[in-house]
Amino acid sequence: MEQKTGLLKKRRRRLGFNKKEWVWIKSILVWIFCLLWFSPVIWMFVTSLKDSQLAAAERVPRWIPETISFENYKLLFAPASGISVLKGIQNSLIVAALSIIATIVICVPAAYALSRLEFRGKKIVLWAYIAILAFPGILFLVPNYFIVHALGMMDSFSALIIPGLGGTFGVFMLRQYMLGISRDLEDAAWIDGCSRFRFMISIVVPFVRPALIVLSLMTFIGSWNSFLWPLLVLNSPDKLTLPIALVRFTAGWGDPFRGIGVLMAGAFVSTLPTLILFVLFYRYLMEGVSMGAVGK
Fold first, then answer.
1. Residues 126-135 pLDDT 10s
2. Which residues have C-beta within 8 Å of that of residue 227, sequence separation ≥ 6?
3. Is there a domain that residue 189 lies in?
């Protein structure tokens, strides 16, 4: 640690900056990168306040609209061709909430078994989980489709929730957290007559709360933004999730630039939940990442 500090001091001296100036430079660079990352969201919001025809006619996009209008949002939430964006938002929230609950219910016991129990084939199961992480999710698209079709779950919320249960990353991440629980604490619980289920609920779950929050956020974002899989398995207008509802909503316009203001309004609305959740649970997210970095 002292060696790294010395190297940083030498680099600062070589560049001709003192410590205070170096802090200012790093702060400015961080703000620049934040603005670059956040600029698409700002552009979506600004475009959603413009008239679609004027926005499509702009050769160079204007970051400050000449006139501000909320007409695009009125058009967005008005049902068109049997497609309701509000219904899509409701469906996406239902699917995301059920996915979070089901993922936690399955991943917590699985991670507990892989971290605290000893059984034959444990290492094989663990390495199988790690191996699955190496494959892209799209590789399982066709097998999942045939399984869902064979089970008669097409055009239902079950088709969106069940294939994603028992996520390998969630099990592996929770297992790494649970390895940090002291064996002495576990032995003391057994002496007091605590069952495995009660130990898992009363001690393990509170201990891995940061990891559960991170897992819930990742599950929500994955479910909320999912596009390709719902596009394959959903058909009824009243069961469409938000991304599919937005596509169907604008499909009848022919020229996509004709309704670019409405489309950007829908994109901005779909971005809001993830931004709000990140702001609300930022502390837990950082706590989860830092604890995972020092996990045993």
1. 888 888 888 8
2. 243, 244
3. yes
pLDDT tens digits for range 146-168: 999 999 899 999 999 988 886 78
The structural domain count of the chain equals 2
Residues 65/177, Cβ–Cβ less than 8 Å: no
Q: Of 77, 93, 115, which closes a domain? A: 77
- Note whether 95 and 72 are same-domain residues: no
Share the mean pLDDT of the chain.
81
* Predicted confidence (pLDDT) per residue in 52-71, tens digit: 777 766 666 777 777 788 88
Residues 103 and 39 in one domain: no
Residue 241, pLDDT score: 93
Are residues 103 and 228 both part of a single domain? yes
| Residue range(s) defining the domain that contains residue 184 | 85-252
Quick check: 295 and 177 in contact, CB under 8 A?
Answer: yes
60 and 111 belong to one structural domain: no
How many CB atoms neighbour CB 119 within 10 A? 8
Is residue 57 packed enough to be buried (19+ CB in 10 Å), middle (13-18) or exposed (0-12)?
A: exposed
Instruction: Dump the DSSP string for 60-125.
Output: S--SS-SS---HHHHHHTS-BTTB-HHHHHHHHHHHHHHHHHHHHHHHHHHHHHHHH---TTHHHH
Place of tokens 């006139």: 67
d(CA 171, CA 130): 10
From residue 76, alpha-carbon distances to 8, 30, 241, 270 in Å are: 53, 35, 15, 12
Q: Are residues 71 and 206 in the same domain?
A: no
pTM of the predicted protein model: 0.80
